[in-house]
Write a structure and sequence with these properties.
With 492 residues, the protein is of the alpha+beta class. Helices cover 52% and strands 9% of the residues.
């Protein structure tokens, strides 16, 4: 375990003045897991005023005994910051939490044990003592090392009391389960306490709830986290619309064993979503949220007509309720609304693909395809990208790239009319096509002065024969370009 020299220096300065000081919290957990801590926290029996005397160039603007001590940044960190802040907090014990989030008052404690006993989970309640010679000693008073070994999230002390103190800890518990890696689980009493105290989440601001939800959605095991939110009853207070999807049977298009209900399909789709983007994962998770309202009939022949439009409106309301930024809402709603885009190789041509592009935007096509991939794999099919989806990608690139066009030329019809006194008519198109054919053979000719001069010469030529030659050359180039794109997507 490597401790940055700046942290060691902070601790040594406190100890030199006769105080205790320990590295504490999540950074100790990460060190023991072999991870690089993102932040470093120090706890001490020095009161804030005493800390400020030792580190006069510090920041103290809170009621919780936390002083922001400035240290020089590590060489590998951001170049635009000269210093970093290490939070040095006085041992403390806390009183009643009337708002289920913040203590009514903060009282400083005398011992490390008192301080560690107020923390959320055992794996976050270990301290690290740096002895002389930089020898490290783990202070583990609540079994955190054992829980790390067994991959268990356990509340410190009485779980219900910890969640009465801060209701957001319930979501943090679930986030740790799906964030720390495979095979992590909630300790049984901690799980039961969350179920009992789930209603306390209503005391937490929607912004904090949203931020924890985002971390779950973006973890490597998002479906596990979402399912725990449902099982504990927390989802009822976050996105109650999800609860309505439980038990709703799918139709024959999604009738694949374990994924035959809307809820299970949404979980599987989220788990299989290939994108790391928040709005894409949200769209994948919520893409069929409108199915319970849209469902007509039962069994394999049930229909869900226009569920994508119903779902898009629902998603917009959900995300506004959770106060997502407008750009995230707009993108997620767009993806949900268009996730049912129709494409069959022999039925939809270039015009159909252009219609999809106009509705979604070229910049969003890749994200829409990722939603479709999650949707497909969440239905139990074997292939993420079948032939027709590859063909759709080919068509998108073909119609959007427009590789051979007179628009590539440095001049246009207006330039010809002004410079050569030409009137609108087919002759202008013939000249431009001839110029394009010549530029294809020699891109260096695509310069305004050269093109105007060449156009002046072509004005006097037999443009019918020139045009035929030019079109042949352009079509040859189009065929080559299309062939290259087809090879890229392995389509015929």
């Amino acid at each position: 375990m490597k401790i940055p020299s700046q942290i060691i220096e902070v601790i040594e300065k406190l100890e030199t003045k006769g105080f205790e000081a320990f590295v504490v919290g999540g950074c100790v957990r990460d060190l023991l897991l072999g991870l690089e801590p993102k932040d470093w926290d120090v706890t001490t029996n020095a009161c804030p005023e005493e800390i400020l005397k030792i580190f006069p160039d510090s920041v103290y603007e809170n009621e919780f005994g936390t002083v922001g001590v400035k240290i020089k940044k590590e060489p590998k960190k951001e170049k635009n910051r000269e210093v970093e802040i290490v939070e040095v907090t006085t041992y403390r014990i806390e009183s009643k939490y009337s708002d289920k989030r913040h203590p009514d008052e903060v009282r400083f404690a005398k011992t490390l044990k008192e301080d560690l006993s107020r923390r959320d989970f055992t794996i976050n309640s270990m301290a690290l003592k740096i002895n002389k010679g930089s020898n490290l000693e783990i202070i583990d008073l609540f079994g955190g090392k054992e829980d790390l070994k067994n991959k268990v999230i356990r509340a410190v002390g009485k779980a219900e009391e910890r969640f009465d103190e801060d209701a957001l800890r319930m979501m943090r518990a679930l986030r740790f389960v799906c964030f720390l890696g495979k095979n992590w689980r909630l300790e049984n009493q901690t799980f039961k306490a969350i179920c009992k105290r789930a209603k306390n989440l209503k005391f937490i601001s929607v912004e904090r709830i949203r931020d924890e939800l985002n971390k779950i959605i973006l973890s490597d095991q998002p479906a596990l986290g979402i399912n725990l939110l449902v099982e504990t009853g927390l989802m009822t207070l976050i996105i109650p619309e999800v609860m309505a999807t439980i038990g709703v049977k799918q139709n024959r298009h999604h009738y694949y064993g374990p994924f035959n209900t809307v809820y299970k399909h949404l979980l599987a789709s989220l788990e299989k979503c290939p994108s790391k983007k928040l709005e894409v994962r949200l769209a994948t998770f919520l893409h069929d949220i409108g199915k319970p309202l849209a469902k007509k009939g039962q069994g394999e022949s049930a229909t869900f007509y226009q569920h994508e439009y119903i779902g898009a409106k629902m998603v917009e309301k959900i995300m506004n309720r959770l106060k997502y930024p407008n750009r995230i809402i707009e993108k997620t709603v767009l993806l949900v609304k268009n996730h049912m885009f129709y494409y069959n190789v022999d039925e939809v041509g270039e015009k159909g693909v252009r219609r999809v592009l106009r509705k979604v935007g070229l910049e969003n096509i890749g994200d829409l395809i990722d939603v479709r991939i999650g949707d497909r794999l969440g239905s139990g099919v074997a292939k993420a990208i079948p032939y027709k989806l590859r063909h759709f990608k080919f068509m998108v690139e073909k119609v959007s790239k427009d590789p051979i066009s007179v628009s590539q030329l440095k001049i246009n019809g207006n330039d010809l009319m002004k410079k050569l006194n030409l009137k609108p008519g087919p002759k202008i198109g013939a000249i431009l096509e001839t110029l394009l054919a010549e530029v294809i053979d020699d891109p260096e000719k695509n310069k305004i002065e050269l093109l105007i001069e060449r156009a002046r010469q072509l004005k006097e030529e037999d443009l019918i024969s020139l045009r035929n030659i030019a079109r042949k050359r352009i079509n040859e180039e189009k065929t080559i370009s299309e062939s290259e794109i087809k090879d890229k997507y392995r389509v015929k």
